[in-house]
Write a structure and sequence with these properties.
The complex is a heterodimer of chains A (327) and B (92). By secondary structure, chain A is of the alpha/beta class. Chain A contains 14 helices and eight strands. In chain A, strands 1, 2, 3, 4, 5, 6, 7 and 8 form an eight-stranded mixed β-sheet that branches. In chain A, helix 2 packs parallel to helix 5, helix 5 packs across helix 6 and helix 6 runs parallel beside helix 7. Chain A starts with a helix and ends with a helix. Chain B is of the alpha+beta class and 92 residues long. The longest helix of chain B is centred in the last third of the chain and has 15 residues. Classes of the chains: A alpha/beta (327), B alpha+beta (92). At the A-B interface, helix 1, helix 3 and helix 10 of A face strand 1, strand 2, strand 3, helix 2 and strand 4 of B.
Chain lengths: 327, 92
């Protein structure tokens, strides 16, 4: 047998006991060819375009899951920022576009669609402005649409006008979904230094420099890395680094294989892969608070805080007062 | 995906009829055994088979379902995965 039985059992153990899975398959779709002055035609173009690309996304990922025996948890779509794609529309509200995205998400069966977005770090175009004003209503009337706005970059600086606007928009979004725990805000991301292309929800959007249709993968491997490191006996720092490197390699390769096969079957390009080594949040919190040293560390960090807040001059003054008081 | 070969792993408590039951379902679906290894690892029966499905109309989902049903009947866990998973993960 060309494959060693130990390797086979190791892979099975990773999936069954260490929670190795493909966290997300995200299809990035360019909407640059959908523009039209009439928003109804634009919506029809967007609907047809996404459906044509992602019609079989969910079914294909399920087939791949069956074929390789690796669970695929979330299926998502990211699109060109709507502020760019809908710029030519003669409309003062983009909520119908969000509703179209929501409808196409329901029909394709994906978990989320990201890209109700605008990039305004240096200034606002009319399209950006319309989109930003549409965010509260769009997030209140849709279920699966995610929105994001980039307000600043290190190169361009901070667009303070847009920051002021976003303050009101966030508040309005929370108010409009107040009866549902303010869920609208959970689907809204405000960026500084947004990457050129981002496949991660809720701030996902399809970058303008990307191909027409692309598949990105997110792999979850903290359990696998944790188990591999724990299995080491009296390791040196070098041994731990080597172990993490090898394990991360295996996880990455698995994700790459799944991504390439999904892309091939859907006639898309394979984009990139993100191996997540971050533990699930509840695990981190529980592990942290179940250890006495964490409490001690927290106390030690909190104690000197008032002292740190003082400037050098006032510190000197405080020291002088303390000496006088002690004396 | 470069081939039509699968790795079938059977893990569970040893008992009479595991190999017979599993291979019967494989034969029914026209799946050939290219290689087979069997061992007892920490009291668990572990059988690993490299299998090949040459039929054009081979239905992977139905085969997996049948294997999982026979696994339940025999009280063992049966995992069917395409061989590429192992090649990609463990080989450069």
């Amino acid at each position: 047998m060309l494959i060693h039985p130990e390797e086979i059992l190791e892979t099975i153990n990773m999936v069954t006991h260490q929670h190795l899975d493909i966290r997300t398959v995200t299809m990035g779709i360019s909407l640059r060819g959908c523009g039209h002055p009439d928003i109804k035609v634009f919506n029809a173009n967007v609907y047809e375009r996404i459906l044509r690309c992602a019609e079989n996304l969910v079914q294909t990922t399920e087939e791949i899951q069956n074929l390789y025996g690796i669970p695929i948890i979330n299926k998502r779509i990211s699109v060109t920022p709507i502020a760019i794609a809908a710029e030519s529309c003669r409309a003062d509200d983009y909520t119908p576009v969000a509703e179209t995205l929501d409808r196409v998400a329901q029909e394709t069966g994906v978990d989320f669609v990201g890209g109700f977005s605008a990039l305004v770090q240096k200034g606002l175009t009319p399209g950006d402005l319309t989109l930003m004003n549409s965010i509260p209503q769009a997030l209140a009337t849709t279920q699966k649409v995610c929105s994001s706005v980039n307000l600043a970059t290190t190169k361009a600086g901070i667009n303070m006008d847009a920051v002021a606007m976003m303050g009101h928009i966030i508040k309005q979004t929370a108010e409009l979904t107040g009866d549902r725990g303010g869920i609208g805000c959970a689907k809204l991301v405000v960026f500084a230094n947004a990457p050129e292309d981002n496949p991660f929800m809720a701030g996902a959007f399809h970058g303008v420099g990307e191909p027409d249709c692309v598949i990105n993968i997110g792999v979850s491997g903290p359990g696998v890395v944790n188990a591999a490191v724990r299995a080491l006996e009296n390791p040196s720092l070098g041994d731990i680094a080597e172990c993490i490197k090898k394990t991360a390699f295996k996880i990455t390769r698995m994700g790459e294989m799944v991504g390439k096969e999904v892309a091939r079957r859907l006639d898309a390009q394979f984009g990139g892969l993100d191996p997540s080594l971050r533990p699930r949040p509840w695990v981190t919190a529980w592990q942290l608070f179940s250890r006495p040293w964490a409490w001690k560390a927290a106390v030690l960090t909190v104690q000197p805080l008032p002292w740190r807040c003082l400037t050098m001059r006032s510190r000197r003054g405080a020291r002088w007062l303390l000496h006088r008081w002690v004396a | 995906m470069s081939s039509s070969r699968f790795v079938i792993t059977v893990i569970g408590l040893d008992r009479v009829g595991i190999v017979a039951g599993v291979t019967r379902v494989m034969a029914e679906h026209g799946v050939n055994i290219a290689d087979i290894r069997q061992t007892i690892m920490s009291d668990l029966f572990t059988m690993i088979m490299l299998a090949e499905a040459k039929g054009e109309n081979f239905d992977m989902a139905a085969f997996k379902e049948a294997m999982s049903a026979i696994g339940k009947e025999l009280g063992v866990e049966i995992i069917v995965q395409h061989e590429d998973v192992f090649r990609f993960m463990h080989r450069i």
